[in-house]
Design goal:
Helix content is about 70%, strand content about 0%. It is an all-alpha fold. A two-stranded antiparallel ribbon has the order 1-2.
């Protein structure tokens, strides 16, 4: 049974429920079309409906099939989207909003000024490239169908401007997906508008030449409005993306970069209140980013998840070794209480990230990065005190185990960095032995059973971490114990620290 079939069995009711959400959104779309007709002819819209009821019926059927295509695309390709109603609402919010916007610009500015590429750009960053390409087709066909069957334009222009909608929308949206996908900052996103304007202007020319009454002034005006539409697409995407990011808690590359800035609220707290944990998280983030690149995962997401994986330690930072300076609070606590404090940081981190409205996947990694692993130190301490009568589950993390490859990477990198840091001999052979043991132990304890990571990917992660940690925790040559005076004379110096 493949992953989609498993999801279908697990979320059967929610998949059916999402179908009703689709029907509700379809009804809203029909209501919007009716509103467009009323605005076009406030006094004669009833007569328009009576006269064109067959065309409007065709429009209803066309839109129904377009919505059905979207539903079945996700049902067979990515059913997990359907079980999260918030994602479904976001899809149709974008679809309906961009349709209304295209109508407003076409009706009150100029038909060529429509921001066709806006939908594709927003969908690209709020979902992914493949979905953006597919859904852009649906969006453009929806706009085209509304134009064609409601006859928003007069009879003289319907054969050019309506069909120009189809071609301009396809070209603008598709090019925007591949161009905007290369942009790494919000401001650089503005360049997308200029890039998609070039082919759009050519298409405007191609639709004017066959008419026989080609007018250079009319072409310049039409091209100007088309360039305006392209620029409006990129400007509005820049303005609206943060709104959708916050409203639907979506993760984009821009938001990821904002979250990994050391000026972010939680990272600032971590740096101030738990400096040892902060420094550990920086190294783990570097390891996770490198591993993600090696196995083809989202490197930006891996880095962000690693930055925040230990934020739960903010609740009691002095209870964790990396933040202690001599005094160890656990010397005065029972092993049971110590284990409870240590394992609670995973759940505390999850709760904190959710309360701060960080993306769900980052919160999930914070809760999953220790899985159900035993807390060895306190389990061993309790065993010695009790004579061996200890249940290992009472000294284990509560889980769940990693459900994504990113969470699995963080789990391995987190434990590997901590283990290698404690090594006296950090030769590549020793590092490789430690990292291999960490991965094998977690495989034996079924920590990767709930994520689809492969043996080949685990081997790649192991070698990547070994190479990286061998470089981070390298041995340095011993510096000569001399100090230079102002006159550049070398004098002997007694030093305690030989590895500055």
């Amino acid at each position: 049974m493949n992953r989609n079939e498993m999801l279908g069995k697990k979320y059967g009711r929610r998949l059916v429920g999402s179908a009703f959400v689709f029907l509700a959104c379809y009804a809203v779309m029909l209501a919007i079309v009716l509103l467009m007709i009323i605005i076009n002819d406030v006094h004669g819209w009833i007569g328009f409906i009576e006269q064109h009821y067959t065309g409007l019926l065709s429009l209803m059927v066309s839109l129904f099939f377009l919505f059905a295509i979207v539903y079945f695309y996700y049902y067979f390709e990515d059913p997990e989207v359907l079980v999260h109603f918030k994602s479904v609402i976001l899809i149709f919010t974008l679809l309906l909003f961009c349709t209304i916007l295209c109508y407003v610009f076409g009706e009150f500015v100029h038909p060529y000024s429509r921001p066709y590429a806006l939908f594709a750009i927003l969908f690209l960053f709020l979902f992914d490239r493949r979905q953006a390409v597919i859904l852009n087709f649906v969006f453009i066909f929806a706009v085209f169908s509304i134009d064609l069957f409601t006859n928003n334009y007069d009879a003289m222009t319907i054969n050019t401007e309506v069909y120009a909608t189809l071609l301009l929308g396809f070209i603008s949206g598709t090019i925007a997906v591949f161009v905007a996908g290369q942009m790494k900052t919000r401001l650089s996103l503005l360049l997308t508008g200029f890039v998609i304007a070039a082919p759009s202007v050519v298409i405007v020319l191609l639709f004017q030449i066959p008419s026989g009454n080609y007018d250079i002034i009319d072409y310049i005006v039409s091209s100007g409005f088309r360039v305006l539409g392209c620029l409006v697409s990129s400007i509005l995407s820049l303005a609206l993306m943060p709104v959708f990011e916050r409203m639907f808690n979506r993760l984009t590359i821009f938001r990821l970069r904002e979250l990994t800035s050391t000026s972010s609220h939680l990272l600032n707290r971590l740096k101030t209140e738990a400096p040892g944990t902060f420094n550990h998280s920086l190294i783990v983030a570097q390891l996770c980013e490198t591993c993600a690149v090696a196995i083809g995962e989202n490197a930006e997401l891996a880095r962000a998840a690693a930055y925040y994986h230990d934020v739960g330690k903010l609740k009691q930072p002095d209870c964790f070794t990396e933040n202690q300076s001599g005094y160890n609070v656990h010397d005065e606590l029972t092993p049971e209480l110590s284990a409870d404090i240590i394992r609670s940081h995973a759940k505390d981190g999850y709760d904190l990230l959710v309360s701060e409205h960080l993306p769900q996947i980052i919160a999930d990694v914070a809760r999953e990065h220790h899985g159900t692993m035993p807390i060895k130190y306190f389990y061993d301490k309790a065993n010695r005190l009790s004579g061996g009568d200890v249940n290992v589950k009472d000294y284990s993390y509560l889980g769940p185990t990693p459900r994504t490859k990113i969470a699995a990477i963080v789990m391995i990198a987190d434990s590997s960095e901590a283990a290698v840091r404690s090594l006296a001999d950090r030769s590549p052979q020793n590092v490789e032995r430690i990292v291999r043991g960490i991965i094998e132990e977690r495989m034996d304890l079924d920590q990767f059973a709930d994520c689809d990571i492969t043996q080949k990917e685990l081997t790649t992660i192991k070698q990547t971490i070994v190479d990286a940690l061998s470089g981070v925790h390298h041995h340095r040559v011993e510096y000569p114990a001399i100090r230079f005076t102002r006159e550049r004379e070398a004098v002997p110096e007694e030093r305690e620290d030989k590895d500055e």
